[in-house]
Amino acid sequence: QLDVLSEIAGVGDHSQVEQHTIEVDLEGTQCRALDLDTLIAAKKAMTSAKDRHAVVELEAIRERLRRLEKR
């Protein structure tokens, strides 16, 4: 599923969002996606149980990546 939004809660409008993206390859197609820290901030601004659960999972991923970077 692809979400196209004009503004992201917890992040801002298009120009603010663009500053916090990374380029990813989706089966040969280059696109921009939120970086992990910004995705966590956006999810924290949401109110659904699904988003709150996603924050826990995303923070665990971030912690694992930080530990790997220290090696």
- Poorly predicted regions are none
Distance between the termini: 35 Å
Number of strands: 4
Global geometry: globular
The number of distinct helices, counting runs of at least 4 residues, comes to: 3
Helix content: 40-55%
Class per helix and strand makeup: alpha+beta
Main-sheet strand order equals 1-2
Strand content: 15-25%
- Topology pattern, helix = H, strand = E: EEHEEHH
Biggest sheet overview: 2 strands, antiparallel
The averaged pLDDT comes out at 93
Radius of gyration, CA atoms, in whole angstroms: 13 Å
Describe this structure in words.
The protein has three helices and four strands; from the N terminus they run ββαββαα. The chain is α+β, with helices and mostly antiparallel strands and 71 residues long. The mean pLDDT is 93. β1 and β2 form a beta hairpin. Helix content is 51%, strand content 23%.
Features:
alpha+beta; 4 strands; 3 helices; two-stranded antiparallel sheet; 71 residues; 51% helix
Concise synopsis of the structure shown:
Helix content is 51%, strand content 23%.
Question: Which secondary structure elements does this structure contain, and how are they paired or packed?
Answer:
Elements: E1 7-8, E2 12-13, H1 14-18, E3 21-26, E4 29-34, H2 36-44, H3 49-70
Helix pairs in contact: 2-3
